[in-house]
Known about the structure:
The protein has four helices and 20 strands. It is elongated. The chain has helices spanning 3-15, 35-38, 62-68, 89-102; strands spanning 18-21, 25-28, 31-34, 48-52, 57-61, 72-75, 79-84, 108-116, 126-133, 136-142, 147-155, 157-163, 178-184, 203-204, 219-220, 230-237, 240-248, 257-262, 268-274, 278-285.
Amino acid sequence: MRILPVLIALISSFLFSETLTLKETLLASPGVLFLDDITIEKVESEKSLMILLPGLEYLVTREFLRTKFPEYDFTGPESVRITVEGPSSLKNAVFEEIGKKAGMEDFEAFVVKTFGTLPEKFEPQTIRATKISKNFFSVFLRFPDTYVTLNMLLRKERNVVVLKRNINVGDVIKEEDVKLEKRNVFEIYGEPFFDVSEVVGKISRRYLKEGTVLTADMVKDPPDVVKGQVVPAYVDMGSIKVTTFVEVLENGYLGETVRAMNVESKKYVFGRVERGPVLRILEVVE
């Protein structure tokens, strides 16, 4: 019978949970952040959210708050952006360590979670950045009296080439198929293109949906010779070089061997594609 009161309490808390409205931005002092600091309504809770270090920026998301405070509903923005007052020396040192691992400069980084306790002095003896994923880093800071670990989300928006329509495997990409859009490059897996001219004329390696950010692994250069193309060909016989013309019977790239047909004799040949394009005949099929 003791189960029933527990169930009633759980149902009641779900049905009658208090709704809190989040602030959009907050200017804070170094210290410890509480739920009361980031909501419009006053909250009776002593559970701390995270440690605020000077000069850094923080993002507190609704998802994080629901995990910490399942008894509340949250409305307002999806995240609260918090700027912490103080000199930029700590931020610069943290960003320098992240930049070494990320291989990039001029980015934004937001603290989304912290571990440890608030130091008395904000002068770290050790800073060590660890790459968790392309856009997510863990930063360990050892202070004289304690340590703090920061989970940081990276962001750098740049114009990248995005598809305006669905593309099938083997399609040649035209200028009207693509556009430039601002995207967070830290959320793009692969090497994106930053200029439309870099992708026009390339061929899709697979089916790609509208809105996809094109990366180098998704496309390939057009073949150097294509099926049906008539190109010069030659047979190298030492001091003698015999030239002719052949019709290429399959697509091919420089250095590849393709099948072709001699335009005059109608005999089939195999030849290596060379720059020009020219076919160096390796074998004649009788």
